[in-house]
Amino acid sequence: MHVSIDEAHIGRRVREIRAWREMSLAEVAGLAGITAAYLSMIERGQRSVTKKQTVHALADALRVAPSELLADPVPHADPVTSDAHGHIEHIGIVLAHNRLGAPYREHARPWPEIQADLDTLLRDLVPACDYVAQAAMLPDLIEDLYAAHAMDSGHRREALIGLMYVLQHGAALLKNLGAHGMPYLAAMHMRYVAEELGEPAWIGAADWRVGQSSAGDRQRMLTVSLRAADALSGQTAPEARQVYGMLHLNAALASATLGKPDDALAHLAEANEMVAATAGFDGDFVDMHFGETNWGIWRVAVGVELGEGPKLTEHARSVDVSAIPAAERRGMFYGDLARGLAQDRSRRDDAIEMLRRAEDEAPQRIRSNPYVRETVADLLRQARREAGSRELRGLAWRLGLAPAG
User: Fold this and answer.
1) pTM over 0.70
2) In CATH, what number does 5-70 get?
3) What range(s) does the HTH cro/C1-type domain occupy (predicted)?
């Protein structure tokens, strides 16, 4: 299904919720720190909202969660993304019906079979950002691991660690597919498993995911991340230091979104110290990919929110994304860079090229990202009086923002 680009913007949700709240343009604009004229253009689809800071400000003004503004106005046009969405409800049912010591299943499969599926998920499906295959596998694998923990005493710890990885990626998948509320449920399951493991690094990793699953509430993301980082302060194990660094990256992005540039840069610097402190460690704790390359990817994302403009290209130039095994991270690096470049009309062609690379890396992730969709819609509006690039029209069609031809 395709919709006109004027119907596929965050502004439509803003307009609907503002009317429901019976608030005036001037009232909402004043609370959000923008002009009424600018808000009017957002609502009419003449300006897109491609910065998380603006979404957060509008959500606060309207007294709703930011996720309310990011909700898709129409079903996904991409059939692959739609297939992944078809499994979301089953994942939620499984999360609701399992807890440590009380699995839904009465019998556990043999551990080698569970381990084989776990290996397939973590070795093949997650790095490839194959949301459809991941979503199809997750319900059974989650229930298998809960059952194994309860019934297979010889593999209890392995089941807990398996759950940490599965819930980590499950929460990310649910968040990236826009399953509002469910990422937090998966993250809280992860927190309970981490407490059972009882080690600081595992608990910190779970709190990192809880912060990531805050439904766009950047103040909660910031608070949760800083509390967890404080709890890890002084830990010297490399796994704990990696988590500590990732928590400060969470804090950096949240601070940038909240309009606190000095705090954002300070948290980036703190995370960078952990990059140096863990440089000789070969492990990748809970698939967080902490290290110099991922720090550079986050630096670009923070720079977009800070509106750093030309500096983004300088930051990006030092990032070798091929060093990251996860297609999702590579794709979002190009997607974030495209968002930043698109803010400068003279860099429109560069932004389109970055969007093309992003989609090549992780199509399922990019086509479901609301900020990428807003960016494409905005670029397409700018091109209305021109022929528009074939690359841009093709991407807009695949995102369901424009008809074929």
Assistant:
1) yes
2) 1.10.260.40
3) 14-69
